[in-house]
Write a structure and sequence with these properties.
The chain is globular, with a radius of gyration of 21 Å. Helices cover 27% and strands 30% of the residues. Helix 4 packs antiparallel against helix 5. The N terminus is likely disordered. By secondary structure, the protein is α/β, with parallel strands linked by helices. Among the domains are: 116 residues, Rossmann fold, CATH 3.40.50; 53 residues, no CATH class. The longest helix has 15 residues. The chain is built from 9 helices and 15 strands. The strands form 3 sheets. It has a 6-stranded mixed β-sheet, sandwiched between helices. It starts with 6 loop residues before the first strand and ends with a helix. The structure holds adenosine-5'-triphosphate (ATP). The site of adenosine-5'-triphosphate has 11 residues, from strand 3 and helix 1.
């Protein structure tokens, strides 16, 4: 059996997450077959895809809540469904509905969480809280949704874990809170070897944040690249509806009323290239429906 290397000695890159030939299905419903993903230490990795392609399933496998049916899924060189306590402590997970201690105050929730984590950093928690100008004695039940999410993020960052898994951090946050979070996250990981795995449906947040991406398609096909390469290499061209064209390697054609949009990794000098943002490129890749 092939051994998964935690450390690639050749260029000294440490892989924090190694997913190799992973298959998973719910009954007859195939989610992945032979999925391969690697996440390098010190990078921010975006797991992207439309609703229902299997992002949360993969996170559940990574967290050991689900077991691979085939293949391997390793974190810090150990099988994710069999992680040692030491490595478990180095993963901070954010998922929907993370907090259910609404009756506590901001102070109390910090006191409640801190003993569970060896590297607990109180200052990080209160730095984030202070950005919101809140009274520490305010009960969580009285906070706005965005403020409560900020408390959750504070609890997550204060763990000072080596790997952060953020499943849809942006749920319900307005543009201001999202920006606050993104800026904080960037500063938080800068100059450290912390690794972040993030899923989000807010594409505009991700452009300046993410290093590597995996775009998952329905059926489990995955396009892996860097954010930079995807943005510069995946192009959108405009072609008039009555123009005959025979082009190779077209990824997707979007038919609009007056013209067609062509999405491709090819470069066509004779066509008009449209300047489109990451969200549109992403939709051009995965399709709108
Ligand atoms: N326990 C389960 N039993 C059967 N099917 C499931 C189960 N959990 C998830 N699924 C299905 O598996 C598919 C992938 O679900 P998953 O939640 O991983 O998608 P996702 O990419 O995280 O979606 P979203 O972006 O909407 O959160 C979906 O079609 C979902 O209905």
């Amino acid at each position: 059996m092939e051994r998964i290397l935690v450390k690639q000695t050749k260029n000294n890159i440490i892989m924090v997450v190694e997913i190799k030939d992973l298959s998973y299905a719910y009954g007859n419903k195939k989610i992945y077959s032979n999925l391969n993903i690697q996440i390098k230490e010190g990078t921010i990795f975006g797991l992207l895809g439309k609703n229902g392609v299997g992002k949360s399933t993969l996170i559940n496998i990574l967290m050991g809540f689900l077991k691979p049916q085939n293949g391997k899924c390793q974190i810090f060189g150990e099988d994710s469904h069999n992680l040692s306590a030491k490595n478990k402590k180095n993963i901070a997970l954010l998922y929907e509905g993370f907090i259910s201690y609404d009756f506590m105050t901001i102070n109390e929730i910090e006191n409640f969480f801190s003993p569970f984590y060896e590297n607990w950093n109180k200052k990080i928690f209160y730095d984030l809280i202070n950005l919101m100008d809140l009274d520490y004695n305010q009960k969580l039940s009285t906070l706005s949704f965005g403020q409560k999410s900020q408390v959750v993020l504070g609890l997550l960052f204060a763990q000072d874990a080596k790997l952060l898994i953020l499943d849809d951090y942006s749920m319900g946050l307005d543009a201001g809170y999202r920006r606050l979070f993104i800026d904080y996250l960037k500063d938080y990981v800068k100059g450290t070897n912390k690794t972040v795995l993030i899923t989000s449906h807010v594409m505009s947040d991700l452009v300046d944040l993410i290093d590597d991406i995996a775009i998952i398609q329905k059926g489990g096909n995955v396009h892996k690249t860097t954010m930079k390469d995807f943005i510069s290499n995946f192009r959108c061209y405009k072609v008039s509806n009555d123009e005959e064209f025979k082009l190779k390697n077209i990824h997707r054609i979007e038919n609009l009323k007056d013209y067609k949009k062509i999405f491709t990794f090819e470069s066509f000098n004779n066509l008009e290239e449209l300047e489109v943002d990451f969200e549109e490129k992403f939709l051009g890749y995965v399709g709108k429906y």
